[in-house]
Every structure is written in structure tokens, then in C-alpha cells.
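I hope you will forgive my troubling you with a question about protein structure. I set the record out below, with my sincere thanks for your time.
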Amino acid sequence: MATLGNPTNTIAVLQKYQFHFQKKYGQNFLIDANILEKIVDAAGVKAEDCVLEIGPGIGTMTQYLCERAREVVAVEIDAKLIPILEQDTLATYNNITIINEDILKVDINAIVQERNYGKSIKVVANLPYYITTPIIMGLFERHVPLESIIIMVQKEVAERMQAGPGTKDYGALSLAVNYYAKPQVIMTVPAGCFMPRPNVDSAVIKLTCSERPQIMVSDEKKMFDIIRASFNQRRKTLVNGLVNAAELTITKENVLAALEKMGLSSTIRGEALTLEQFAVLTELL
């Protein structure tokens, strides 16, 4: 079994299995052992932990996780990677379960029940840009018992996760992350640390999950429908965004009345509202 996390062994495994990168899956494999160590350290993986890894690739990070955790469940969408994982890079570990499936279709709550007796798990992932938001939102909205999520994402996505009101990066993702967790960027990872080399730098961000949300709202789904509608067309006013949203049945009069009660301008945009203000707006509507 080759120890991964360096270019030589990674290339050898890829050539052995004649593996070709698939652009549709956004595949970029880490080839820097130092960064791998730092990620696993930041995730705080201990001997009693059950870890869910999303997108193990050829098993680079998975090897490090298997060395430290009680159990690792790795969900990989690309069927061509399964033989590499099962027969080669993870073959010597007996604490790994590999699931060949789309993470968005997996019943993660069932995995947590079965593998960790319903107790909170740690999630580790190296996510392509286009699927980051659906995966993060899916974990939160399905109320998976989570201790933390540590993910490698495009640097600008990490910035978006911890952006505040009024900034260009602030949006629905910033609000969701801050509703469910406390975000902290651990480090920036240069493009040269990956194979193939991506066009932009990445960042590792840790989301420490809260036992209960930061604020209380009676209808969580409604609040996030309102948030999404507010940011669908950023240049529109909040009123227009909400009134034109197909999934909401809100009248202009109701929105204007709610904004007036909150002491906010009728021309305010969604990007100006804090999480607390979105919660108040939801209750008023």
C-alpha cells in the first residue's frame, strides 16, 4: 500500500489504474503531507471518533483519518475510484466503510445511527466549488448530528462563509453557516499543493457546530426561503425579491408593513440585514 500525500506515490497509483480525472466531479488530489497533517489536527480527530469523509478521491486524506479515528465512512461518487480505494490505498485498514454514492442522496442520519449510535460525528471533505453549498446546506437542514465540519473549498467560498452584512461576499451561505455553526478559516492552501493544479487557491475552514441555533425562529424553513429569495437577485430591493419569489406567497403590503415595524427602509436590500433581522422578519411575515 502506497502512503499518499506526495506527488510520486500519487502519480504511481493513478498510472497503475490508468485513472483519468473527471472535470464534472471537480477532482483535485492533495499532494502535500504537511497540509494533510494540519487538516487532521484541526479536525481534532481522536481514537473514539466516527468520521464521515465526503469525496475521498484516491484515499489521500482517508489514510490519515483511518490512522486516528475509530471508524471512517467515506462516500465517493466516482465508481472508477472504488477499486483503487478497496484494493489498494485503503486495503490494509479495517476501520473504513466505502460507499459509492452521491452524498446528496445518502441518508446520513441513518449512517450516524448505525455507526455512531446517533452521537455527533465529524465531517471532513475536499469539496469542488459547484457542490459546496448544497452539501453544507444538506447537512444542516437535515439536522445531521454534527460536532464539526472541516472542509477544503475554493478560497472565495471560505470567505463567503464568514462574511458579514453589507459585504460583497455576504449571502445565503454566510447566514446558514452562522445560524448553525461558528466558522473559522484554518489556512490557505496554494493551488500548487494539488494534482491536477486548480486555477485558484483553496482554504480550509472549520465549522464548529452549535447544539442549538444561534437564534430562535419558529419556522426555520420559512426563514431560509426568505433569505434565499432576498439574495436571488442581489441588485433588487428586499421587497421585490420577496414578492417575486415563486416559493413564497407574500404580498408587497405585508413586506412593507414588516419593514416599517422593524424601522427599516422600504428600499433596503437583503444584503444589509443581519441574521437576527431575518429571524424577526420571518416572524412578522
